[in-house]
Amino acid sequence: MPAYLTDRLLDPTALVESVASPGCGATSLFLGTVRRAPEDGDLEGIEYSAYPEMAEAEFERIVAEARERWPEACIALRHRTGYIAVGEASVAIAVASPHRAQAYDCSRYLIEETKKRVPIWKKERFASGAAEWVEPMHV
Amino acid sequence: MRVRVRFFASYAEAFGRQEMGLDLEAGASVADCVAAIRADPAASRLPPSPLVAVNQRYARPETPLAEGDEVALIPPVAGG
Questions:
Q1: Which of A114-123, A129-138, B8-17 is predicted least confidently?
Q2: What average pLDDT score do residues A7-16 get?
């Protein structure tokens, strides 16, 4: 399976190795990490939860669309769930292709569609003990 | 007919549960199902048109439901 959820620490090196092939001259690695912006105060980390069966179904649909657009791309995507501390990666995407344009474009497509469509939610956890759902603009 | 309704994240907190069974009339749509869910006082937490998935796929309000369908109310997604 090229894209799935995991509750383990992400391993970017292993992900890059999993898409490597002799015909690919370009590999793009994207990491999304939990950040603390100045307005986030004492944010310590984010608890990620998902609707696992649908998340994996949606990942499959997104990967199928990407393969249709970039048939030569080799894709690996992992999204972590559970508690993730500031500075740690929540999502990792490796794309290998013969040339760099496909690798960049395909990687960008995968992260944008993931953020728009995959049923994953975040709850911010603060040092004070407070916790808040992250609610992007309703669509 | 009976469907299984699932709640996630902020909706699961608002409803105080992760799922429930719901009896609907034959031929009911997603919109009919959402209207039935709104009978629960916790539904004031829902936006006017919540995102809904049927059997793990996003569905439109007019999508017809069938016996045994899994209907999920999807809070605004925030992955990445």
A1: A129-138
A2: 98
Nearest to A29 by CA among A106, A83, A81, A82: A106
Burial B50-72 (b: 16+ CB within 10 A, else e): bbbbbebebbeeebebeeebbbb
The stretches of A25-137 forming alpha helices (DSSP H) are: 52-69, 100-117
Q: Name the helix (H) or strand (E) containing A121.
A: strand A120-126
Check: CB of residue B50 under 8 Å from CB of residue A107. no
d(CA A78, CA A95): 12
Contact list, A111 vs chain B (CB under 8 Å): 80
Q: How confident is the model at residue A68 (pLDDT cuts 50, 70, 90)?
A: very high
Please answer yes or no on whether A122 and B78 come within 8 Å at the CB atom: yes
| Reported pTM | 0.94
Supply the ipTM of this predicted assembly.
Answer: 0.94
Tokens of A98: 């013969």
Q: Answer whether residue A139 shows pLDDT above 60.
A: no
CA of A79: which chain B residue's CA is closest?
B80
In order, the DSSP letters of B5-45 are EEE-HHHHHHHTSSEEEEE--TT-BHHHHHHHHTTSGGGGG
B interface residues, A as partner, C-beta within 8 Å: 6, 8-10, 47, 51, 53, 56-58, 72, 74-80
* Distance of residue A111 Cα from the nearest chain B Cα, in angstroms: 7
